[in-house]
Amino acid sequence: MEGTVQKRGKSRGEDGVAMAIDFLLANARLVLGVGGAAVLGIATLAVKRLIDRAARPPGEDEKPDQKSISETWEELSLTGASPKLLKRGLENSAKKSLPAVIKIEKEDCSPSSMAEVPKLEIRRVPLCVTLQEKLLHYYQSHVTLSESDVAQAKQKALDVCMEIQAFLRSKQPEMPLGEMCLGGSLFDGLQVVSADHACLLVPLLIEEKFWYFVPGEETILNTPQFWMVRRTNLEYFGRGSSYWDKFIVGGYLSSNAVNESLHKLVMGSMNWPALGSMLDCTIRQVMGSQELKLEIQQEQSQLFIDILPIIRFEETVLTSQLESKGNFENLWCRSFYTDEATKLGDLDASDSGLRLCCLKILKAVCKDQPSLRRVTGGHLVNVILHLSDTESDWSEAALADRFLQVITEVTGYLEQGFLPSYFNSAVNLLSELSAEEIDEIGYTLYCAFSNPDMLLQRGV
User: Fold this and answer.
1) Which SMART domains does its entry note (predicted)?
2) Which of 136, 249, 309, 421 has its CA 20 to 30 A from that of 400?
3) Averaged over 354-359, what is the pLDDT?
4) Rounded to the nearest 5°, which phi and psi values hold at 123?
5) What are the φ and ψ backbone dihedral angles of 106, each rounded to 5 degrees?
6) Rounded to two decimals, what is the model's pTM?
7) Nearest-angstrom CA–CA distance, 360 and 185
8) Highest mean pLDDT range out of 221-225, 357-361, 430-434?
9) What phi and psi values does residue 303 have, to the nearest 5 degrees?
């Protein structure tokens, strides 16, 4: 009877401690934020495990705890981390470790059985001990593209570009378009993992005396990233004086109207099966995307080409990116892509640094990790440019330090919910991310800071 009472008292005491810990974790995120709550949750979980293990009867520790995985997921979810990410990680860990343990237990390690094992061919893999060595191995074995793959992708994109330009000039000779060109990371040496994406830039030639670029701060939305193009001097030059007057909506040049016109001309009128047959590949338009996008397949290779209308005026470049501006059909996105890529290259050239190398490693990591795929090259470039203002050592010896420092900087911007553009500090580059996406990215990077190897697993 006395033992029963003691057991009940002990159980009530443990329940009280558990309730206190659960209350602390449930409210930690409000006080400490995503990262602080994650660290507190992991530390608290470790203490609870030690207490539970110490309280078990002798011999019980040797039995596998069947509920440990589900309890760990449930308790860590109180910290505000992504449940999907944790559940997926725990399931993968269990699938990888349990079969290995069972196999080891069943193996016969007697000398006779070892003698019967056939000799296997030993494959030499570089032994990477430090994070520095692992990053360089990851870069060389996984990130960089072969010259033949890059050349093949560039040639295929160029062939398609020439055909589209010739078609538009023959179909709409009165449409004032500049010389089309190919751009993007494939042509700037910034593409990673696979040569699978290019961008076809279609310059619209507009008359400066008819049109005025309205900066984002001067529009009704007051969003620095999105500009408008207003028709002017209508009292002197009436409608029809400019070819682009037919795309005016509410007094402004409509990016949606321009995209719809090009979509009908290019996507709806060109004979893609015949063109694909001529170029020895399969060409089809990507359905379900607001952007003008083509998919090109040839044997095992795949290449996507975005067709992007742009407007240039002096140093300002505006692009028509439908997925970025939502339902506002008159907005044009202010692009700093060329400025960012040029600045990064100039910095590396000035001190023989590895900023571009660090950027490409991070881009590959984000491309490989499902929870980080919303982190774009634009986000990473701007973080590295900001960091370069305070950090001068970007040598190969400092690659690991800079890699971890960029991760720290990104998590800091995620905590604030604001990543300023390097060339316009009023532009928030995180505005397109939801709160859930920010939480998931932030938690993954917090875990990676203490265990960066988890980010390099697919590349090794």
Assistant:
1) Mab-21 (SM01265)
2) 421
3) 97
4) -100, 120
5) -85, -15
6) 0.73
7) 10
8) 357-361
9) -135, 130
